[in-house]
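Re: that chain you flagged

S.,

Sorry for the slow reply, it's been a week of failed gels. I finally had a moment to sit down with the sequence you sent. For the record, here it is as I used it:
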Amino acid sequence: MASSFLTWFWNERFWLPHNTTWADLRNTEDAVFAQATDLWIMFPYSIVLYGIRILIERLIARPIGRKLQISDVPNRPPAPNAVLEKVFYSITKYPDGERLEGLCKQLDWREHRVMRWFRRKREIDRPSKLMKFSETVWRFMFYVTVFIYGLYTTFQTDCPTNTRSCWEGYPDRQHLKPLNYWYYQTELAFYTSCTISQFFDIKRKDFWIMFAHHIATIFLIMFSYSINMLNVGMLIMLLHDFSDVFLETSKIAKYTKQETFATIGLISFATSFVLARIVYFPFWILYSIWFDAFDVVGPFPSWYIFCVWLAILQFLHIYWCTFIVKGFIRLFKKGGQADDERSESEVSDSEEDVDVTRARTESQGDGPGINGVTLRKAHK
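Prediction finished late last night. Pasting the structure tokens below so you have them in one place:
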């Protein structure tokens, strides 16, 4: 039964171009090819990578954060208040307009005090700045390392400058090299661990969008590896790691109160994001997959699925880009100072005046934005 299912699932006419069989991609003494069975090892690799993350956060990031005097004080709950707790749990966590005025009159409190109570109530279970800083340091170290490695690996081919060359000799003349193997396994292990740890990490506003992004990324990595689309697969992974380096740099600068560097990092992130994912990705990579591959290799069923998933990925890029544009509008309105809320898509409002602004903004129908905006990556 199992063998029959596998035979049906790995049908050559679905997965491979015409006139190509799995026998053409078997390893020999002269050539090694990517095998779908290699992907199972991603699970132990993801566990190892998560262990490395824990070590980096505890042994490197947290000591650095303490030395820089980044706060590790847990959030304190506000004083019990029956009236406000009833509103918080049954009506809204962000009182605005007439409701806010009514609460102020009922309790004989100023608006500032009511908003502070709601802010502290929302932040009871939120992580300290030191914890967020530690997670950011880990991601920064990972992205820098894997980007440099991927840059070296990808430029062993001509794909970055000539995307049509990605399809030359596909699939039986694109051999698997150790550099390619480890690049794929590292990226796959990272996104696998992120998909699981996302439920335990700092909660962000784009939680489900990011979850969908991780699933799409894992599928695309596994798909391109299984059918030996290594050249274009590596190029796509490299492109997504590029802008993430600047994002994490901006957040580290923000946590260490280096506002100028935080703003520079934010501008660099936005610029690299647009150039890599809004310009290069659709007009070079997607064009090459949709047209060059069609001409050189010819269409086959799994190729169509690959195109659809890449289109979904591009939709997510456009979705995040709208937040980037809104963020820059608010950035310049504030005089060019980067906010933590812009660079980190967390459900966290750290200042009382932000609470007031958010309540008023939402009451005007502007959605969940505050005096900043989500600029969370795609990443990958």
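What I noticed first: The two ends are 37 Å apart (CA to CA).

Talk soon,
D.
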